[in-house]
Write a structure and sequence with these properties.
The protein has 301 residues and is α/β, with parallel strands linked by helices. The longest helix is centred in the middle third of the chain and has 23 residues.
Length: 301
């Protein structure tokens, strides 16, 4: 009997030890920032010191790809659901309350299932189609202008410290449609949105969560002339930048990255299982090898 009890105790100790070795979250907070219409070419021609600092301190590729059709609602749905349009079924690009919400899991709904807090601050009402009821603690459309969007988001971040927060800047897309991609007006809009990134970083510092945060900056599409939506490189190519805890500083991501990898990377950072049905994969090369150990780190891009 003593030997049996001793073996049982040993087994329990081994099990508990293995459980303690299971991967923990890389960070406690993930902030996904979308620069609407963020053409890498035009961004490089704009004054974006905050974004450049994030690239220098983090990992980046300027050759990530969005989905087709390369339009706002459909691409953002892929960005935040981890799947392409064939799976998420959002095939329109405007706010239509009668059509309801996306019916596949989102980064927000999966985070809520794990008891995490979520928020969305956007410049376009149509992104509400992604906010499944009960999945987003706070959904706001503060303004079309990034300065007002980030003011609202920063105040909320300081008070609530959300685990998953999506911030969307719309004015660069509007400037592209009105004045053209690469226009002086669009470059000014990118500059304003870059200033908003500085406000975000300061909010993380002020709230005491900067060292437990990851920021992902990307876009829904690029653009050409005064439009987008095609399969041209100008429309399809987007930036993908990641900064924060566990991220390799100054690292150039060389493998292919797609817009739906954003959601998968966010879940991986938070140690939330990624659905097998997802097209997106976490961009693991961007992280230090010691960032995460255990079963949850077995995936690869």
């Amino acid at each position: 009997m003593y030997r049996w009890n001793h073996c049982l105790l040993t087994l329990i100790v081994v099990i508990l030890a293995s459980l303690s070795a299971v991967a923990a979250p890389v960070a406690e907070h993930v902030f996904i920032v979308s620069v609407d219409g963020g053409s890498p070419k035009v961004l490089h021609e704009s004054h974006i010191p905050n974004m450049q600092a994030l690239v220098k301190e983090g990992a980046a590729t300027w050759n990530a790809q969005t989905i087709l059709p390369s339009v706002t609602l459909i691409a953002h749905t892929s960005m935040l659901t981890g799947v392409g349009p064939a799976k998420h079924k959002i095939d329109w690009n405007g706010w239509d309350p009668e059509k309801g919400h996306v019916t596949v899991p989102t980064v927000f709904s999966l985070a809520k299932e794990k008891g995490l807090s979520t928020a969305m601050f956007v410049g376009k009402q149509k992104l509400n189609h992604i906010a499944i009821p009960g999945s987003v603690d706070e959904f706001r459309v503060p303004s079309y202008y990034s300065r007002l969007v980030i003011e609202d988001a920063a105040a909320y971040i300081k008070e609530k410290k959300p685990n998953v927060c999506f911030i969307h800047f719309a004015e660069s897309d509007g400037a592209g449609h009105e004045y053209g991609w690469g226009s002086r007006e669009q470059k000014m809009a990118f500059g304003d949105e870059d200033s908003a990134l500085g406000v975000l970083r300061q909010a993380l510092t002020d709230s005491g969560i900067s060292d437990q945060s990851v920021i992902i900056i990307t876009a829904d599409h690029g653009g050409h002339e005064k439009t987008h939506g095609s399969d041209s490189p100008e429309d399809m190519t987007i930036p993908w930048i990641i900064w924060g805890k566990g991220v390799k500083p100054g690292f150039a991501i060389t493998e292919p990255v797609t817009v739906f990898d954003t959601a998968a990377t966010a879940l991986w950072v938070l140690d939330i299982p990624i659905p097998d049905s997802w097209d997106g994969k976490p961009v693991l090369s961007a992280f230090n090898s010691a960032s995460k150990e255990g079963p949850a780190a077995t995936g690869s891009h």
